[in-house]
Design goal:
The chain is built from 8 helices and 6 strands, in the order H-H-H-E-E-H-E-E-E-E-H-H-H-H. It is α+β, with helices and mostly antiparallel strands and 350 residues long. Helix 1 packs antiparallel against helix 5 and helix 5 runs parallel beside helix 6.
Length: 350
């Protein structure tokens, strides 16, 4: 049962993990791409409200000019309308500030923070609004920028950079939480189903193993029940047929042994009678009486064997008892030792 649980749960956990990571990554990329497209559209819309001549009309030290104030007002209006974090304008040649709704980029100062987005800036200069990869701001939150050119390709005066919060990470965290919850519920369902299946499989298998052990001990009377209609039930039926065949063969064997024992017992009684007569006839010859005693002892062994055959045929419960080792070994010595042959010595306590 444990192996079945492990063999089922490990692939299930792996499959759920791979699916969860794949689904999370697909959702993250889709949301990130959507944010990039939204910011690129916002940047293009903000750039369309500003004339190239306006960005070229002021520079460092012109904070009080009406043109700068007008551009700042348009940038702020775009930020509020689009609902983004920050909108700024920079010169196309040296990326120096031309307006910043956050107020962190001074007029005419170099926008060093945009240096990591060279590829996106180049695409924006060619007239294609582009979004940067995610980056982490000073507050530790993820953000994304998009760039659009002010002016037509070949006559671009500046760039509009729109910076937005990656607030979809909140939704992504909720999606991840739901994935984990669904994965946990699925894992519990698989665990319960696997335990149920394992119990349905292991229970009959254990009982079949017990039945096979009983067959090995010679217990052939109790039938083996067929609990299911599947392969395990087929195995139980086959095992019960084997039990019935063994019981029938054992019964025939008992009958055969009983017949043999009865057939042997009759002449054995005659041999014992004639051995007694021989002993009486040789009463005056002690050396010959030892041979008669040996014959009678062997006849006694034969009677014991015949009795054991009959006892086996009747199948009585075994009667276990301690036996003295030395007398038994002495009998074995007499049976194995012959005149002129190998001499057998018994070394055993009394």
């Amino acid at each position: 049962m444990a192996r079945l649980l492990v063999g089922t749960l490990v692939p299930t956990i792996a499959a759920l993990g791979v699916f969860g990571v794949f689904a999370h990554e697909v959702a993250r990329r889709a949301l990130e791409d959507e944010l990039g497209r939204r910011l690129a559209t916002a940047a293009a819309g903000a750039a369309a409200t500003i004339l190239p001549e306006q960005l070229q009309a002021y520079g460092a030290g012109d904070e009080g000019s009406l043109t700068y104030a007008n551009v700042r007002r348009k940038l702020e209006a775009a930020r509020e309308r689009l609902g983004v974090r920050r909108v700024m304008a920079v010169a196309v040649d040296d990326l120096t500030g031309r307006g910043d709704t956050a107020g962190t980029l001074a007029l005419g100062a170099a926008a060093w923070e945009l240096g990591a987005d060279k590829a996106e800036i180049e695409r924006a200069r060619s007239g294609v609004p582009s979004a940067s990869p995610l980056f982490v701001g000073h507050d530790g939150r993820p953000y994304k920028r998009a760039y659009a050119a002010v002016g037509e390709p070949g006559a671009v005066a500046g760039l509009i950079a729109v910076e937005g919060n990656a607030d979809y990470y909140v939704a992504l965290a909720a999606f991840r939480h739901r994935l984990l919850l669904a994965g946990g519920l699925a894992l519990c369902a698989v665990l319960a189903l696997t335990a149920l299946v394992a119990r349905r499989i292991s229970g009959p298998v254990v009982r079949l193993a017990d039945a096979a052990a009983r067959l090995g001990r010679g217990e052939l009377t109790a039938r083996i029940p067929v609990e299911t209609g599947d392969e395990i039930g087929f195995l139980a039926a086959t095992l019960d047929e084997t039990r019935a065949a063994l019981a029938a063969r054992d019964e025939r064997l008992q009958m055969m042994l009983a017949g043999i024992a009865h057939e042997v017992r009759n002449p054995l009684g005659g041999l014992e009678l004639y051995a007694g007569l021989l002993r009486d006839a040789l009463a005056g010859q002690p050396e010959r009486l030892a041979e008669v005693a040996r014959i009678e002892r062997e006849l006694g062994h034969l009677r014991t064997v015949v009795s054991e055959f009959l006892e086996y045929a009747r199948r009585p419960p075994p009667d276990l008892a301690p036996v003295a080792a030395r007398p038994l070994l002495e009998e074995v010595r007499e049976l194995t030792e012959a005149p002129g042959g190998v001499r057998v010595v018994v070394d055993a306590p009394e």
